[in-house]
Sequence to fold (479 residues):
Amino acid sequence: MTTVRVRGIYTTAATQLLAETDCEVVQPSEPIRDRFDRSFDTVPADVSIETTRDRQGVEISGDPDGVETVVSALETLAIDTFCWSGDVARGAVFDAEVLEAEGGSGAVVALGDGRRGYLKYDDADGYVDEGNRYRVQVQEPAPPWDDDRPLVRPTLEIRGGLCTLSRGRTGVSAALRGERADELVGMTDLLSVDVPDGWGVRWQQAAADATLEAMGAALEDAADRTRSLEDALAETPAEPNEPGLLAAPETTAWCWFGRESRFALDGVRKRVETTMPGHHRAKAADRAASAAVDFAEAVCGSFGDDGVVADSEFPFAAVARQFGPTVGDRLEIGHGKPDGRLVSLGRGEVTDWDPEGKVTLERSMSPGGRYDALDVPRERGDVAVTKFREGRWWYPTTYRAADGTTKGTYVNVCTPVELFPDCVRYVDLYIDVIRNADGTVSVVDTEELADAVDDGLVSDVLAEKATSVAEAVERALSK
Fold:
């Protein structure tokens, strides 16, 4: 059975979902212990699930077989759940070369095969200059939809949730204060575990609730993985060489949750705890929303014998009034791709807002080139008017000339739209519908959708949905 450590805004739902598969959640947080009517073990985890910093999905890192098991449990969550394998895994060791070291707080480094990383100046000894080479380890990988590069450091660590072994660190320490920290350090002497030479031990916060037996198992597991890493690096040159991968003790995968995925997670969470409509949708919108959601659910929890809030629509108006978007805000259009990339289509001003979940966005277009599929020129003074609706599988953009005449309408078919405070998010499904200025309507880019299905980027079910949406839009525009 795969053991999994879960953290972040999707923890309760993920814990319940994994409990229904061949997985066991370990090292739970205190809220999880309180919510579930069962016991949890504090033992080493095969896999770690972390919510991404933008709260759009999760990182899944750990043992390759375990990661595959967890991905299998999540990828069928809903029609707009996308999962990808990461090419720069957490804990991977590379020889790296500095490419750019001008300004900022760090340098861009080459990791080989076109991969890039980010090395903070404070993590390196001495002056960092272009051409310098370092042996680095990935401390924080980056999701494919994020512009950030993986964070790397010229140190080696083995993390296990309860403890971390670090090369270059000496002795034993604890990432907490007080008597319990002293106890953890002192109890280490009672563990009959041989820590590899040159590696120091640091107990993490989770160890505060661990038994001596669990501490011993965690330290032994970390020590074994440390020796495996040392073995993998034993045949490599002592000094950093050409950029390239040297060792990958873990694999990393990413899951991006669309709107329907978040509501599916709400349904899973309802089996355990009071859950307001749009729980994960609201929490994904803004960090400040988490406290508001927790408060609302604490109040609502007093209603109903089963502790479950009655199903209703996502309270878009309440969330948008508190956190955005509303009239006057500027929104970026985050055009996701089924291969994991995120393309920005620019920013516009919200000119109209509706409590039912409708937002109108206007953008001034720069001159030059032609509009896709419409095949009309982009000219100075052109304005793009885009109308989004939360949860809809498509959105139209009408291009107008400076004199107000319409140049055409382009309808993008995509996964259900989500209107976050600073960004519109969805995943493009290739197939689109256009309406030319003369009123003719046609479906375009069907071949691109077919190619994506052949490449395994879009499922047959999702492709059928996209096609049916495009056909419905075509009929509506042709009337």
About this structure: Residues 212-233 form the longest helix (22 residues). The radius of gyration is 25 Å. The CA atoms of residues 18 and 73 lie 7 Å apart. The longest strand covers residues 423-436.
